[in-house]
Predict the structure.
Amino acid sequence: MEFDSINHISSRSEFVNEDINDHSSVNSEQPSRIFYPKTHEECQQLVIWANQTNASLFTRGAGTGTTGGAICTKGDQIGISLVHMNNILDLDQINATITVEPGVILSRIHQAVEAVGLFYPPDPASLNRCTIGGNVAENAGGPRALKYGVTKDYVIGLKGVWANGESFEYGGKLKKNVAGYDLIGLLTGSEGTLAVITEITLKLRPKPTVIAEAIAGYKSTEDALIALTNTLTRGVLPSTAEFMVERCMSASLAYSNEAPVMASFPAYVIWQVDGQTVEDVNKQLNQIKSFSKGATFLMMDTDDLSNRVWGLRRNVSLGLKQVAKKKYSEDIVVPIGNVPEVIKRLETLNHPSGIEVLGYGHLGDGNIHVNILKMSASEDDWERFSPDVIEQVMAIALKYGGSISGEHGIGVTKKQFMPLMFSNHDLHIMKQIKTIVDPLGILNPGKLHP
Ligand code: LAC
Ligand code: ZN
């Protein structure tokens, strides 16, 4: 492949796993080369070059996605890594916005805005490693989505390059903007299939004045779900209500090499409430306690304990992978009212071969991380039965009014399930949009579209 017109952009052709894989179950192919542009102009040069040479591009941030959206699917593809575009360009306290390049690590954004009394709520588990560009590409969520929504609720400006090489700049620091079709909405969650995003403006909120957190141990999954349902239907809106069963906790403790923070319980919920005053947050927590029959609450009232508990929660997925040897991670979402029934259904999917199914996660907003764990199943049984188990998970999600993805996106791992959610006509509309902005199929081929 000739790289003459883009040779000035820094690039590499030797890779280790972290350069090309993500956190999904799919292994990346070896790309021919990965470019590390530093400016919008360099990104545009790469896309124009790809159009001229009919090369395929995939765009990457930190590779923490879980559906294969940022991996190389064919050996002749070229990567664009945006990790060197990692500047915070503007933090505007008057307009409460931050403008950043896509390679900025999410926790850096949290720190920068909180230092001036502002708040950016989306907080996916990978927040210390993931990049904001990847969050926008996948429309990432996180625990605080329960009260504050997901990435798309905060993206108000985007600059970038459409797949055909045209530059764009939409929105900005505007809190309201209804001119024309919502192209920012279209691009947010488009999984790198339509454009390379080079600049992002996020709206910010005032930082909550008082926060209270507790991890509660419940005597059964049912008790935890009753507490969740009652809390959410009786006037308390926590900022997080993260559910996990004992197996999640023990897997994360082992992975994190940590001592337990409290006695062992069949189920846990990490509650966080925020408000204007101590009285206000205490009142909310007391209401939650009154719905939590027989539960044991441990207040996370020091930074150390809070960091430990949240660290354990964030390592659940990686911990389960370590325990299970192999796993698939789904992220179905259902209406909150259906969560208890769906959890019950999921429990029936454990397979005689040894494959286990376990749901945890953002149950307060109906987003369940269904993990299909290999455990004691043989390799043959895993290959043979796990696809069927996944199909049953998806069928349950749809039966209960849900979606096949609440926050991880489609990538390569879930594209075969798109026809379960969308009619042929719907899929045709999506394909037509792709064809208009990417007539040569340059960007992220093999992703999202079935
Ligand atoms: C989590 C990731 C997997 O919430 O989304 O643990
Ligand atoms: Zn999650």
User: Anything to note?
Assistant: The longest strand covers residues 195-203. The chain is about 35% helix and 20% strand. The radius of gyration is 22 Å.
